[in-house]
Design a protein that fits this description.
Two copies of one chain form a homodimer.
Chain A lengths: L7 E12 L2 E9 L8 E2 L2 E3 L6 H13 L5 E8 L10 E9 L15 E8 L10 H15 L16 H12 L5 H10 L3 E7 L9 E5 L1 H12 L5
Parallel strand pairs in A: 1-6
Antiparallel strand pairs in A: 1-2, 1-4, 2-3, 2-7, 5-6, 8-9
Chain B binds a DNA duplex through helix 4.
InterPro entries (chains A, B): NUDIX_hydrolase-like_dom_sf, NUDIX_hydrolase_dom, WH-like_DNA-bd_sf, WH_DNA-bd_sf, WHD_NrtR
Protein name (chains A, B): Putative Nudix-like regulator
Pfam family, one (chains A, B): WHD_NrtR
Chain lengths: ~230, ~230
DNA sequence: CCAAAAGTGTTTTTGCTACACCCATGA
DNA sequence: TCATGGGTGTAGCAAAAACACTTTTGG
């Protein structure tokens, strides 16, 4: 039989975007206590009849209006006193979205005073244990980017190699060598060169590329397959 | 204000051990419905007033009698229908312990009919979504072993290089070259050669080594530090 | 003396690092 | 014509992979 004790649980999302050459995170300002007016990660409670992945997608949609987003669970935070009003366990997800400067986000929730894209190295003190959650998400994507092509989720479909390098540099927080970066990126065929080039720029126009997921999946499958012995 | 809906949640543990050259997992046979008599991962509900890490340690202790064990959270499973009796979200941990063939485990819980160490490639169908949980844990430790010295958690304090190689081969599920393995393991100073050797074996006695955590921590710290640019 | 595992080096290949100049474009 | 970022190759080094025989021990 199921026990009598129950807990509340929630989802918190670390939503990454890339804009103006910087890695950013979507923060919201809370409208209600506890932590009224504090900055926090977008998050909300999970309904009794929805799965947690589902809930994460719903919450992401409510805060950004976006669907079909790269969204991945990375850790669950369950200290007894992490929420001042009672026991709340939270499952943390990170998401990567393409910020388009045109359309602003319309958080579809009354709990939010405002939202903004905060550069990752300027994050203020956050409500609850959200600073910890954010730190853990950064650690995770730094490791993840070395074996999984998450960088492309932050870029438009067509991008230049310099843009791609900027994403890697922002996530890894270090400068990379341009020639070595290009050599490596182009060596395995996961990028497809397009006929199109930039235009209207006051310097040599860069070639656009796109991510070739088909080729990537082949390589990845191979990586997962063990050799005969 | 906190919402009215609440859920139950639990911890499930994938407890790895290494014995007779094989990687094994501790399974228990359930004593009660649902899934009465089915094999399952050790797990139990989290109390209202305990943190989840705490809860994982308690549950691990109840099933093995062991404390101070390598125990790490790896994923949370929250499908609505994963438990037939109601909404139960489970936080999954994996643990690594040294199986000593002498002392048997004494599960300190009435919910268990029996327990046994099951080789990872002979796992039967498991209760709930435990097969999925187990698969995910394997994926995790396979990746983890390439950058974190978790293999030592499975071995006694003193071990031979062949034993160590066996652990790597069992986790990675492939054969490794003996000379290259030794070269690599001995190249970075994280193993300390002992004066002691095997005895009573009908072949050349192997030298014992132990893991030098001090040296490892130095290397690891260095790895986390970013270079000047 | 045999069976069984311990232990040991070298060569080849591959991937990573470091490094500097010319090109195309719009203003 | 100038400022700006786009684009390119090579050499040296280090790590990984491939590969087979001798040594020690107890029975």
């Amino acid at each position: 039989m199921l026990p009598k004790f129950e807990s509340i649980f929630s989802i918190d999302c670390v939503i990454f975007g890339f804009d103006e050459g910087a890695l950013k995170v979507l923060l919201i300002q809370r409208n209600d206590p506890p932590f009224e007016n504090w900055w926090a990660l977008p998050g909300y409670f999970v309904e009794k009849n929805e799965g947690i992945q589902e809930a994460a997608e719903r919450i992401l949609f409510n805060f950004t209006g976006l669907t079909d987003i790269f969204l991945e669970q990375f850790y669950t935070f369950g200290d007894v006193d992490r929420h001042p009003q009672g026991r709340v366990i939270t499952v943390a997800y990170y998401a990567m979205i393409r910020i388009s400067s045109k359309d602003n986000l319309h958080p579809n929730t009354p709990f939010v005073k405002k939202a903004f894209w905060c550069p990752v190295n300027e994050i203020p003190a956050l409500a609850f244990d959200h600073s910890l959650i954010f730190e853990k998400s950064l650690q995770r994507i730094r490791r993840k980017i070395s074996y999984d092509p998450i960088a492309f989720e932050l870029l438009p479909e067509k991008f230049t190699l310099t843009q791609l390098q900027n994403v890697y540099e922002a996530i890894l927080n270090k400068k990379l060598d341009k020639r070595n970066f290009r050599k490596k990126m182009l060596s395995n065929g996961i990028l497809k060169e397009l006929d199109e080039k930039q235009h209207g720029v006051a310097f040599r126009a860069a070639t656009f590329y796109k991510f070739d997921r088909r080729t990537y999946n082949k390589l990845f499958k191979k990586e997962l397959t063990f050799s005969k012995e």
